[in-house]
Amino acid sequence: MKKGSVFTGNEENLFYYPSKGEDIYRLGIFSKEKIQKAVFSVEGKSVEFSVSDDKEFLMQNLIKYHEIETENSGYASLSSFLLPELDSPYRKGADIVFEKFANLGIKWRNKKNIIIDLRSNLGGRMYYGKAFIYSFICKNQYLNLKRDEKAIDKWREITLSGELELESPAYLQNKLYYIENSGETDAYYYKQYKKKLKEQKSNPQVKIFKNEKYNFDKITAGFNGNLIILVDNHSASASEDLVFLAKKILGNKTVKVIGENTFGSDTYVDVLFYFLPNSHLSIKLGAQKNISVSTLPEWHGEGLGIFPDYWSKGEDLNETIFFVTQDEEMKKKLFDIENRLM
Fold first, then answer.
1. How many secondary structure helices (H) and strands (E) does the chain include?
2. For 161, left (φ over 0), alpha (ψ -120 to 50), or beta?
3. Which run of H or of E encompasses 295?
4. Which comes out higher in pLDDT, residue 187 or 61?
5. pLDDT band, residue 331 (cuts 50/70/90)
C-alpha cells in the first residue's frame, strides 16, 4: 500500500505484528490453494496485491536437540532427522543441529558412555545417522557435512551393500525435485542424477540392480566405550537405520539398545511421493530395498522393528541406563527422562 493510504477492507485480513511497532499490521489471507494475487479494499477501491506464501507452520520441522555431559558420559537427544525445506525458518537451526550430532563420535570418543536418545524420532534423512557412525571411525578432527559429503556418502553405501535399487525416469525426476527443494544443488550427486535423467529421457526404462557389497570385517572402530541408543515404538526409519548400522559397524559389545521395539520401517529406503496425473492419486514408493537389515538378529520385520537389548517401558528407563553406565552424576541429570526428551 502507498504510504498514507487507508485500508477499508475486512479486519480479518489484518494480522497484528507488535514486533514491528505499535499499531503495525500485516495484510494477508488464508488460502488452501497456492495464490499469487489477492484483491483488497483500499480507500473504497479494489486493489490487487502480490502474495508471498508463508509456509504452513509444521512443528515437526522444528528440530529439538539437547546435550548433557558428565566426566564419563555424554547424552544427546534428537527429535527428528527430517530436513526442513530451504525456505523454512527452521532450516538454519536444523543444519547446525545435524552437524553437531554428526560430530559426537569425535567429540565424545574418549567417554566411557555415549547415550543417544531417539525416542519418538520418526526418521527423515538417513545421511545424518551415517555421518554420526562415520564419526566413530574417521580420522577427521571435525566433520563438515558439506565438505566431507562424498566420503560420508561412500560410507553410507555400506548400509545398502548388495541391496536392490530402482532407477526410472519418474524416480529421477522426483529425486531431483527433492534435492532442489532441499537446496542441495551444489551436492556432487545432483549432477549424477541429472545425467542419469538425461540418459533415461532418450531411452526410458526401469532398472533394478544390486549395489556393491562391502566386507564389514575389515572395518575397525576407534571407540572403546558404550554407545547406548534409546528407542520406543515411534522410533522409525532413519532412527532404525542408525541402530542397524551401529550394530553392524561397532558391534553388540559396544552398542546397547534400551527401550521398546521400534516402529518397523527400515526395509524400504528413499521413499518419495508420486502424483498420478490420470487418477489424481498420490502414492509413496521406496526406490531401494534394504535386504541386509534382515541379517540383524534384533530385527523382527516390518511392523515389529528392532528389539532392544534391555527392555524398558519408561518408568524404569533411568535405572536401566544406570545399569549400563554406572554413572551416578548422569543418573542425577537424567532424573526426568521417563517423562520427556532431556
1. 9, 14
2. beta
3. none
4. 187
5. very high
Distance CA 336, CA 318 (A): 8
Closest CA to 255 of 322, 328, 318, 310: 310
Q: H helices within 214-327, ranges in order?
A: 238-250, 317-325
Query: First CA to last CA across the chain, in angstroms?
Result: 47
CB atoms within 10 A of CB 105: 23
Coil, helix or strand at residue 251: coil
pLDDT digits (tens, 9 = 90+) for 283-329: 888 888 887 788 888 999 999 999 999 999 778 999 999 999 999 99
Q: Is the dihedral of CA 78, 303, 245, 309 positive or negative?
A: positive
C-alpha cell of residue 182: 532441499
pLDDT beyond 80 at 11: yes
Judged on CB neighbours under 10 Å (0-12, 13-18, 19+), 140 is middle
Query: Which set of grid coordinates corresponds to residue 308?
Result: 532392544
Q: How confident is the model at residue 128 (pLDDT cuts 50, 70, 90)?
A: very high
Helices (H), the chain: 91-102, 104-107, 127-137, 149-156, 169-181, 188-202, 238-250, 317-325, 328-333
Ramachandran class of 123: left when φ > 0, alpha when ψ lies in -120 to 50, beta otherwise: left
83: left (phi over 0), alpha (psi -120 to 50) or beta: beta
| C-beta of residue 287 within 8 angstroms of C-beta of residue 165 | yes
Residue-wise burial string across 15-43, b where 16 or more C-beta atoms lie within 10 A, e elsewhere = eeeeeeeeeeeeebeeeeeeeeeeebebe
Count how many Cα atoms sit within 13 Å of the Cα of residue 284 in the half-sphere of its side chain.
5
Place of cell 526410472: 168
What sign results for the dihedral spanned by CA atoms 188, 193, 196, 197?
negative
